[in-house]
Amino acid sequence: MLPLHTRAVISGALSRQLLKVLDLAEALRGDVPHEQVAVHLDDGIDVDTGVLRDLRFAAVMRPGATDRRPDDVLPVICGLSNTDVVNPGDVIRVRQDSGQLSVLYRRGANANSLFLTVQCNSRCLMCSQPPRDEDDLWRVRELLDLIPLIDRDLPQLGFTGGEPTLLGPLLPELIRSCKAALPWTGLHILTNGRNFADPAVADSVHDAAGFATWAIPLYADVPSRHDHVVQAAGAFDATVNGIYNLAERGHAIEIRFVVHAQTLPRMQHFAEFIWRNMPFVSHVAFMGLEPMGFAKVNRDLLWVDPVDYGPALAEAAWHLQDRGITTSIYNVPLCVLPKAAWPLARQSISDWKNVYDPACEGCSMRPRCCGFFASHGPAWRSRGIRAFRFDEAAE
Question: CB-based burial of residue 321 (10 Å sphere; 0-12 exposed, 13-18 middle, 19+ buried)?
Answer without folding.
Answer: middle
